Amino acid sequence: MPLDLSSLRSQLLAVVQQLHDLCATFCAREPLLPGSLYTLRRRCGKPTCHCAHGTPHANTVLSYRGQGRPQNITPAPAQLPKLRQLTDAYRRFRQARTQLLRRQRQLLTLVDRLAQARVREGQRRWQRLRAAPSPSRPRR
User: pTM of this prediction?
Assistant: First the structure.
């Protein structure tokens, strides 16, 4: 049983360390842009354009929810590196949030298992104390 308690304590400390590591992501100062950049390929519709018979035109588009509805904007090529940083930071933040939820559930499970193991150990010790002969009191 002590080995089980030790293992549970080690696991608990490891999860707490992981939670601490996630805090660095949440406390970062970089701004976030909830959206994504992707390459949109489409045909322009002109019958003499190369896209009518070959590869479609490719544009990098920023997709995000602005003013309460989804919007697609084609940013200038010079803006793409900064937009990619902002959207990537948002994606990392959201992934860290998902990890936080998983670690919290894991932490609660470990705490419950630790409590159960400690209660079992306490009951065993109590049973041994009850079963042990009590020292007789000296008479006066």
Answer: 0.73
